[in-house]
Automatic annotation (TrEMBL):
PANTHER family: DEAMINATED GLUTATHIONE AMIDASE, NITRILASE-RELATED. This is Carbon-nitrogen hydrolase family protein. It comes from Roseateles aquae. Residues 1-258 form the CN hydrolase domain. The lineage of its organism: Bacteria, Pseudomonadati, Pseudomonadota, Betaproteobacteria, Burkholderiales. It comes from the Bacteria. GO terms for molecular function: hydrolase activity. The keyword Membrane does not apply. The keyword Zinc does not apply. Keywords: Hydrolase.
């Protein structure tokens, strides 16, 4: 199955961002992708953190423009769509959930994951705290994606979640379920942390879970002055980088192969050797 990670440099203009996302989703489908993934905050990189509150949507609302675009585009293009993240209203009016919604090729909602781990960073020059406006999620989420006659179990995560390997273990070792075949990590890594840790952590998650990884990212200088690392990646279960888009808008596209996945797990059956 061919999969595509969309890289964006989103702005404070929601309409512009939605149009650019639609463009790149269509381009990915035209190149044969059956699963397309958008980055975190694809719909808005605001001038201030609380700008997310201004565009927050009620979950599942028929008139919600961001959710409607995702559903309609998935249906029109006939693809599975991992919809990056968008702000969904939380229980308190001054917070939102950073939600990743997945749609099937019929445009139906297949899963929703709310980011569990909230990023905070302060090195004396840069500082950021997502907890000021985000409410953390509750549970890990996986979704079964069926394409080209095969089902792929996909584990959902977002950005800072990448630093917590126990989340991926929990998804791959759910009682009664097979391990994840593909891990999705839509992100908006800062340039500082991304340069140091992004590829390192993604390849580690692929190797330790013997799974493919798709990591669509924000990648460039935004209107709010923030610079994101980009380097959207597709990685195989041996840790090999199959595709990378370094900076600016674009796509990282690669084929994921069930036979390759089975061979890695058979030759080095580490998933069977787990004890803790």
């Amino acid at each position: 199955m061919k999969i595509a990670a969309v890289q964006m440099v989103s702005s404070p203009d929601v309409a512009e961002n939605l149009a650019r996302a639609r463009h790149w989703m269509a381009e990915a489908a035209a190149q044969g992708a059956k699963l397309v993934a958008l980055p975190e905050y694809f719909c808005l990189m605001g001038l201030a953190d609380n700008d997310k509150l201004k565009i927050a949507e009620d979950f599942g609302a028929a008139a919600a423009p961001i959710q409607r675009l995702l559903a309609e585009t998935a249906r029109e293009l006939g693809v599975w769509l991992i919809g990056g993240t968008l702000p969904i209203r939380a229980a308190t009016p001054d917070h939102v959930r950073n939600a990743c919604c997945v749609y099937n090729p019929q445009g139906e909602l297949a899963a929703r994951y709310d980011k569990l781990h909230l990023f905070r960073f302060d090195n004396g020059r840069e500082h950021y705290d997502e907890g000021r406006v985000l409410e953390q999620g509750d549970v890990p989420v996986t979704v079964d994606v069926t394409a080209e006659g095969r089902s792929w179990r996909v584990g959902l995560s977002v950005c800072y979640d990448l630093r917590f390997p126990e989340l991926y273990r929990a998804m791959s070792f759910t009682p009664g379920q097979p391990p994840c075949d593909l891990i999705a990590v839509p992100a908006a890594f800062t340039h500082t942390t991304g340069e140091a840790h992004w590829e390192l952590l993604l390849r580690a998650r692929a190797v330790e879970n013997q799974a493919y990884v798709i990591a669509p990212a924000q990648g460039g200088l935004h209107a709010n002055g923030r610079r994101t690392w980009g380097h959207s990646l597709v990685i195989d279960p041996w840790g090999q980088v199959l595709a990378c888009h370094a900076e600016g808008e674009g796509l990282a596209i690669a084929e994921i192969d069930a036979e390759r996945l089975a061979a890695v797990r058979s030759q080095l059956p580490a998933l069977q050797h787990r004890r803790l």
